[in-house]
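Ligand: alpha-D-glucopyranose. Inputs:
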Amino acid sequence: MSYAADSGVCLDRILASTDLSGLSKKDATTFTRRLKEHFPRLFDKYTYVYGHQYDCYFHLQKLVEILRDGLKSRKPALKKLDNERLKNPLWYRDEQQVGMACYVDLMGPTLNDLHDKIPYFKSLGVTYVHLMPLYDAPKGDSDGGYAVSDYRKVNPTLGTVKDLEKLASALQKEGINLVLDFVFNHTSDEHAWAKAALAGEKQFQDYYYLFDDRTIPDQYEHTLREIFPQVRRGSFTFNEQIEKWVWTTFNSFQWDLNYSNPEVFNAITSEMLFLANIGSAALRLDALAFIWKELGTNCENQEKAHVLIQAFNCCLQIVAPAVVFKSEAIVHPDEVLKYIDKDECQLSYNPLLMALLWNSLATRKTRLLTRSMKKSFSISENCTWVNYVRCHDDIGWTFDDAVANELGINAFDHRHFLNQFYTGRFEGSFANGVPFAENPSNGDCRVCGSLASLCGLEGALKSNDSKGIDDAVKRMMLLYGITFSIGGIPLLYSSDEVGKLNDYSYRFDDTKKHDDRWVNRIAVTRADTELALGNTSPANPTETASLRVFNGLRKMIAIRKQNAIFGQSSTQILDADNHHCFAFLRENTQGHKLLVICNFSEHPQTIQRSLLATLKGASGRDLLTDETVEMNASPLLLEPFQQMWLLAD
Ligand code: GLC
Ligand code: GLC
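Predicted complex:
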């Protein structure tokens, strides 16, 4: 018997014994209709992972009840949004979409204060706000909120769930999508499940990976990658209270959830639906690569991790179809691509583009960027990239070693160079960054720092070097310009938009000093926003640069929004005939064409006009300067760090 047939019988039986009387008539109809559509897929995924367990069907039935309750508590405004988004499923590919990620406390400092920031978001053109994790978390170090103690409670220092719901609907009214984190690989050790496990309750001990001795952890550790070697060696933490080893991929207080237990899947689905029902348009799937463990592997990107995410996706389709998933897979480029699918994650961070933009800035060369993007940029038309330059985390050099090899680049040495370059250990570097998570066994590390500091603004301001300041601002425009134009949702990292420098104050805070990522988690103050909005004037070179950055980004965003070519268009990566330059062509079904050419060097560069032939016209108009560029014989000149957005006339 095929799965489809099995699932039909199964659904009939489940529905026969599931009480839908708590749902309105309309909801009951919707629920049954959506189950008919999506249950076969859910059944397929669920039984693939849990089918060998004797109680699989019992849990599947419970899951349907959880979905029913999720729909019951979904507010009318959100149901309306569900219908709208079902009619316009590709909203996220629209040129109007521009994102920003920010910490509530660093911008608010509370949820209620963020209402006042809506005009600021709008003045920049932001339509998607990712609020960094804001759930109840341990006091002191909570991995910046990524150790969640209660998904249904907002961290009291930021506000309440009511405040969050109010903010979500205020944002929705202004056309701004709220994005929340779904931190489902682990909970904090203060979550009620962990507390019950600590109290010795077997049921909850099975929510996590607990081991009596080192036998099994040792077997796993043969093949595991260490994520935070500066915190603790290995991936397990000994808990004295229960005298067991706990699987802790990240910090010792972040306990990995055990997804081989269907009860965990169900319990987390219920939490996920709660977050969806707050009014989020997208959920960011934190650390999704790690959710399935398989002995003898690195326990990242396992097949069943994908199956589970697809199962979560089915649950959303049934209860909250307006909500999409964003993949946070900071892994090998081939693995990043595997999460991207309409039925898995519709959105994905683009860590490869991010890392290679920084690579090109350091080397002034674009070979690796061009070659890698040719290989890995193209994804399903139903999905889209979230392109970013900086975020709250470190920069990891996740490029494909094989591609580097093809170009004669030794990947290991090159990563070493990049780390040296961005942490100020390389003579002549413009960057002020900080090394992160140095691994004493293999010398590996990653890089932290703010956009402005990594682009050279910190050093240039210190030495009063006006050319250096100018170059730094141009570098920032270049990197962001590519995220605005290449295809996908550009995601600004709050504080970048006003060019804030590294914040070293974390070094004096005992709860933060061991985690250098805090250097790039920077407050955007009232003074910053007033300056940006033109309500105050710049009073020193730092403020002058800050205003230049803000106005420069705002202008590019406005141009993006005025031109449909930045939305649902294809992207073709081109070979620029100059290895300091990067070029790509956008094309849409209406026949519009845009050629983007970028110079990564601090020297002027020329490009043969044959590249312009891809535009198939006699001339192109640079949207950034409004100048017309003719197709004639002489080479095209690009100023240092210049980018051109040439729209075919
Ligand atoms: C994600 C977050 C990072 C966090 C980790 C563990 O990678 O971006 O900040 O440390 O997950 O939750
Ligand atoms: C690792 C993980 C990534 C996480 C980061 C945090 O690179 O792969 O998911 O964001 O560590 O620093």
